[in-house]
Design brief:
Structural class: alpha/beta
Strand content: 5-15%
Bound molecules: nicotinamide-adenine-dinucleotide
Number of helices: 14
Low-confidence stretches: none
Helix content: 40-55%
Length: 352
């Protein structure tokens, strides 16, 4: 893919030879405000792979931020390297200076391979950073509101499917008992659902059996989706829904935290054909970005939680639009996001 065949506003290559920094910052859209999206630190096989990832991810953030109701555009950054070997104070600070050089067109945050402590270091060089530690005025662990938002999206899907916004009496399968999966388990149990879960990590499974002995555990995601489930919640890696898994689903709803759950375009149609209601991933998992975005105003947990609670209304609106327009929910979500970017973004043409 050539860079200029995409619709991105700006793509910046950043290089600092001494610290070894090689980063790409992609701004997809600032129609709604400064672009916000995390920094992925990953040992890509090639610069082309890194570029491809950052272009895709920044586009995804524009859609996510638009539907999260944020006055923020979409952007993302990748640092090409092995976070375990290459991460250093000079490298992170060099990166921070490049973020600063964009003058606020792009706000960064954590992503795969970067953590709140790293954002504290980046923040020494730039004001345009979120996802810092609580002791530095940051929002802390974003999985708290990610899980809360997924639960709200799941409630909206339950209402759309079964007429009542609750998971009480339903059986929910969670794949991935990581930071988000753990919080989600609690929301579901508190709501009266029964939970069956899996994880590849023995530590996560030990946590589940000691903390919530009522949660049933199975050996793999394959086994999980074959269980008799009402809801399937992918909370591990992307690509959980593909040509092999969708035909096996017993669940009537899919709503989970993982990014990019649909393995390829067309899977949303497979789900619809099987009458599985899919709550789009980037809508229901936007609680995390809502949490870190709140830092820009000076972090207030109650305000951020209230905003994440609106994921319930947005999910409902998308599912209703999908029904009305006869399209899968993933398509309805994209349409709604594009509408907000166009309608609200257009207002800037009014000179004030
Ligand atoms: N943390 C957030 O705020 C946030 C926000 C939006 C989206 N997400 C997405 O949600 C997902 C979970 O995030 P997290 O922060 O809980 O990550 P995490 O790394 O804490 O947890 C992921 C868990 O999945 C498990 N896992 C990995 N492969 C698995 C497999 N094949 N089968 C079963 N379990 C497997 C891991 O052992 C781990 O326990 C990720 O896809 C992430 O990108 C997270």
């Amino acid at each position: 893919m050539g860079v200029f065949t995409t619709s991105h506003e700006q793509v910046v290559f950043c290089h600092d030879r001494q610290s070894g920094l090689r980063a790409i910052i992609a701004v997809y859209s600032t129609a709604l405000g400064p672009a916000l999206g995390g920094t992925r630190f990953y040992p890509y096989a090639s610069e082309e792979d890194a570029l491809h990832d950052v272009l895709e991810l920044s586009r995804g953030m524009a859609y996510k931020n638009a539907l999260a109701g944020l006055d923020l555009g979409g952007g993302k950054a990748v640092i090409w390297g092995d976070p375990d070997k290459d991460k250093s104070e000079p490298l992170l600070r060099a990166y921070g200076r490049f973020v600063q050089s964009l003058g606020g067109r792009y706000y960064t945050a954590c992503d795969v391979g970067t953590y709140v402590q790293d954002m504290d270091v980046v923040a020494k060089e730039t004001r345009f950073v979120t996802g810092r530690s609580e002791s530095h005025g940051g929002a802390g662990d974003s999985s708290v509101l990610t899980a809360y938002g997924v639960f709200q999206g799941m409630r909206a899907a339950a209402e759309h499917r079964w007429g009542s916004p609750t998971l009480a009496g339903r059986r929910v399968g969670i794949a991935g008992l990581g930071k988000v999966g753990k919080h989600l388990t609690k929301h579901l149990l508190d709501d009266g659902a029964s939970v069956v879960a899996t994880d590849v990590s023995a530590r996560a499974l030990d946590w589940a059996s000691s903390t919530y002995p009522q949660v049933d555990l199975v050996d793999s995601s394959d086994e999980l989706i074959r269980q008799q489930l009402d809801v399937y919640a992918p909370c591990a890696l992307g690509g959980a829904l593909d040509d092999e898994t969708v035909p096996l689903l017993t669940a009537k709803i899919v709503a989970g935290a993982a990014n990019n759950q649909l393995a390829h375009p067309g899977v949303e149609k497979l789900l619809a054909d099987r009458d599985v209601l899919y709550a789009p991933d980037y809508v229901v998992n936007s609680g995390g970005v809502i949490q870190v975005a709140d830092e820009i105003e000076g972090f207030n947990f109650a305000r951020a939680k209230e905003r994440a609670g609106r994921i319930y209304d947005t999910t409902k609106q998308i599912l209703q639009l999908a029904t009305a327009e006869g399209v899968p929910p993933a398509v309805a979500a994209d349409r709604l996001a594009e509408r907000r970017m166009a309608e609200v973004g257009r207002l800037r043409t009014i000179l004030v």
